[in-house]
Give the backbone structure.
Amino acid sequence: QVQLVESGGGLVQAGGSLRLSCTASGRIFSNHYMAWFRQAPGKEREFVASIRWSGSTIEYGDSVKGRFTISRDNAKNTVFLQMNSLKPEDTAVYYCAARVGVLNKYDAWGQGTQVSVST
């Protein structure tokens, strides 16, 4: 089982940037997929971005394309989410998640980190 710990959330003004980190521990395989999701109050959880642990498979949710960038540092077992041009509607708790293979559900989740964007 993989354990995930997020960090890097905070309060930022609209137009600003933040970088989230997700450090993984446990057995990580080359076909692990790491992802970021977010959930705002009263809303459903939303897919933000995903990256394969090895290889170049990257996907983004439509609402963040062109503004957010997901990357990984395999040596540090860490996945990053660089968030630029932040908008108030990006305000949410951001969760890191992991799954083995593209067909399985995400079954490992971090505790979440709050991102708040002010006007």
Notes: The chain is about 0% helix and 55% strand. The longest strand covers residues 92-100. Residues 36 and 96 are 5 Å apart (CA to CA). The mean pLDDT is 95.
